[in-house]
Amino acid sequence: MTGSKTKIFGVLGHPIGHSLSPVMHKAFFKEKKINADYFAFDVDEKNLGDAIHGADALKFCGLNVTIPHKISVIKYMDEISEEARLINAVNTIKFDYVKDLIIGYNTDGIGAINAIEKNLNDGLKGKKIFILGAGGAARAIIFSALSNNAEISIYNRTVEKAILIGNDVKEKLNKYLKVVHLKNLKDELKDNDIIINATSVGMFPNADECPINEYCIPKGKVVMDIVYNPIETKFLESAKKRNCMTINGVDMLVEQGAEALKIWLNMEPEEYLINIMKKSIIKKLKNKPKN
Question: What range does the domain containing 31 cover?
């Protein structure tokens, strides 16, 4: 039961009803017997600053931030991590009451990297990764993967957005990002080890959509989708038919959540706890109404 000594955490977004972050964090706190609770808060853009400072005044222990606030929240931070600076987005906030600081972090990229590495049992050094999309998730994965010495190619329907990320990568990391055009898409996909859908295409309720023609997916690759609802997207279903190893979006969701817990609690969540978080998400998704 929540009381005066309960540690309070939460997630800010608009809308926020779809968020599964409370499910996995509550499962973690319950298993660890930590007196803490986690809530979803629907916050409009105009009230974002008030929400952050209100949480600080109320001695919240930490917050996650989701769409559409990951960039606009930066101006309310006293400090941001190097990862957040590179990605130019914050998805995790820590209230440091000893130093009287509000600190912003980004765990999206490292969450994706951890999900890949745990499934491959291998590092990313020298791996060729193909990213579909040029939004915030793509950006987070790209900067984290490049920092782990992977090679990156990117395709986006609006090529100018991909070029902008490439320019930012060059400026901040002095590394090269290969921008792929539609006419070369199928051939370029074959030249990569890992293919990641970093768009929202295929997300419920549009679960019959696929970010690329399924026949463009090369055989025998590692294919990941950041979409977690449905658990197996059309993209992953098509990849399985092509004898690819698949990684679903639940893994990334849980891994980025585990990284946030590490920041807030100064502890490394054990693997069994991460598995409990994952099972709680899968159970919730499987029990969700279909309409």
Answer: 7-106+251-286
Q: 150 pLDDT band (50/70/90 cuts)?
A: very high
Pairing of strands 128-132, 194-197: parallel
CA–CA gap between residue 12 and residue 19 (Å, rounded):
10
Task: Say how many domains are in the chain.
Answer: 2
pTM above threshold 0.90? yes
70 catalytic per annotation: yes
Residue found by looking up tokens 């930012």 in the block: 168
pLDDT at position 289, please?
58
Same domain, 73 and 123: no
The Cα 204–Cα 211 span in angstroms is: 14
Q: Of the residues 26, 70, 125, 240, which is catalytic?
A: 70
Rg (CA), the chain: 19
CATH number of domain containing 36? 3.40.50.10860
Is 66 annotated in a binding site? The answer is yes
Is 35 annotated as contributing to ligand binding?
A: no
**At 9, which amino acid appears?**
F
Q: Which CATH number belongs to the domain containing residue 234 in this structure?
A: 3.40.50.720
